[in-house]
Design brief:
CATH architecture of the largest domain: Beta Barrel
Shape: elongated
CATH topology of the largest domain: AOC barrel-like
CATH superfamily of the largest domain: Allene oxide cyclase-like
Largest sheet: 8 strands, antiparallel, barrel
Distance between the termini: 57 Å
Strand content: 35-45%
Structural class: mainly beta
Radius of gyration: 24 Å
CATH class of the largest domain: Mainly Beta
Strand order of the largest sheet: 1-3-4-5-6-7-8-9
Length: 190
């Protein structure tokens, strides 16, 4: 029968305890988000607003910045890239109270249907979320009734945000291409 020295047993036990403690921290990043960091308890927020995508007139808020040679011949607009700085309002009317802006790009990314790749920030300018942002990155199948896109992050009061945004077309002008889109955003944040 083998005899183990007390040093080896103490060293092995200490090493295993240390390795277990480190592995637990590695696999549980929420351990880094303790209340002492000032983040507090995680909560779910629901935000509701209207997105005004204006491509026509003297002051458009959505401007095509790039396109492929085939874009104008494509039934879906495939290849077009649009930069946006769209108002976000409390109600659907353009004169409704401004709560923020949607800033970023969308690209027509499908050859089969009208599908947008959306990469945008909702920059809030009013109320308790003033100065905070949410980042959305995903596919927007614009002719579907309700579209869902992931919220992939945020800043300010939305640090460590995650969730989803649901878009529903409230109004669309076929002649000009202008649209008002209702957004319901559900986001987990600290």
């Amino acid at each position: 029968m083998a005899v183990y020295s007390p040093f080896i047993l103490i060293f092995s036990t200490s090493f295993l305890f240390f390795a277990f403690a480190m592995a637990r921290k590695q696999h549980c990043p929420s351990g880094l988000l303790r209340p002492a960091t000032g983040l507090g308890k995680e909560k779910l927020s629901h935000l509701h607003f209207y997105f005004h995508d204006i491509v026509s007139g003297p002051n458009p808020t959505a401007v095509r910045v790039a396109s492929a040679p085939m874009t104008n011949n494509s039934a879906t607009g495939f290849g077009a890239v649009v930069m946006i700085d769209n108002p976000l309002t409390e109600g659907p009317e353009p004169t409704s109270k401004l709560v923020g802006r949607a800033q970023g790009i969308y690209a027509l990314a499908s050859q089969e249907t009208v599908g947008l790749l959306m990469a945008m920030n909702f920059a809030f300018m009013d109320g308790k979320y003033n100065g905070s942002t949410l980042s959305v990155l995903g596919r927007n199948a614009v002719f579907s009734d309700v579209r869902e896109m992931p919220v992939v992050g945020g800043s300010g009061l939305f640090r460590f945000a995650r969730g989803y945004a649901q878009a529903h077309t409230h109004w669309f002008d076929l002649k000009t291409g202008d649209a008002i889109v209702e957004y319901n955003v559900y986001v987990m944040h600290y």
